[in-house]
Amino acid sequence: MTATDNGGRDDGLAQQPRRPARVIVTPLAASHLHPLGKRDVQRVLAVLPDDSVAGLRSVSLLDTQSDERGRLVLGSFRRPGFVRLHAVPAGPWRTPALGADDVAELRRFGARVEHRGNGHLVTWTPAALRLFTVVGVLLPGVARHHRERLGHAEPGTAVRVLGDASPWVVSDLALSQWSAFLAVGRDGGAAMRAES
What is the DSSP string of the chain? Predict the structure, then answer.
């Protein structure tokens, strides 16, 4: 089946049978972790609408990345079809000073955020970090893929940077539902190290 506009012309967005995206996991140093494992990502992608994941070829779990200001990049975008999730520190995150919106958002996902000197110390439970990574990083990455696939180009490659509060509005019900979904069929441990 081919998507067409009102005039019956092909718009180039042919609907193809759903093929699961590959999940590529890179090995990490012991000081970092992937909050989601391969099966976690596969489970989340499997429940998303077909049109949102159409053309998604891979989700890569990569090493850490920082932006030009030294902030932790949590998710990035290569081009349509390729979403990247970046590793995070295994222990508490020591960050530069975060804005009030950032602190409120991290706390909403379950992080403990303490003011320390000129910055913050962010501590996560494994379940809270997984929830944040799915709702605050993976889903925005898939949404960016979908928008770009439809021709809505966006500047830059960063999908989510620590210190840039998400513009997404997520209901308490949605957070509760994602939390329950993630609690079922956990991926072999709280913090996922690289899988082969």
Answer: ---B-TTS-B-S-------PPEEEE----TTEEBSS-HHHHHHHHHHS-HHHHTT--EEEEE--EE-TTSPEEEEEEEETTEEEEE-EESSPEEEEPPPHHHHHHHHHTT-EEEEETTEEEEE--HHHHHHHHIIIIIHHHHHHHHHHHTT---SSSEEEETTS-------HHHHHHHHHHHHTT--SSSSBPPP-
Q: Within a domain: residue 118?
A: no
Provide the domain count of the chain: 1
76: domain range?
A: 22-90+127-183
Q: Is residue 106 part of a domain?
A: no
pTM of the entire structure? 0.84
Please check the confidence at residue 13 and state whether its pLDDT lies above 60.
Answer: no
pLDDT of residue 143: 94
pLDDT at 165: 72
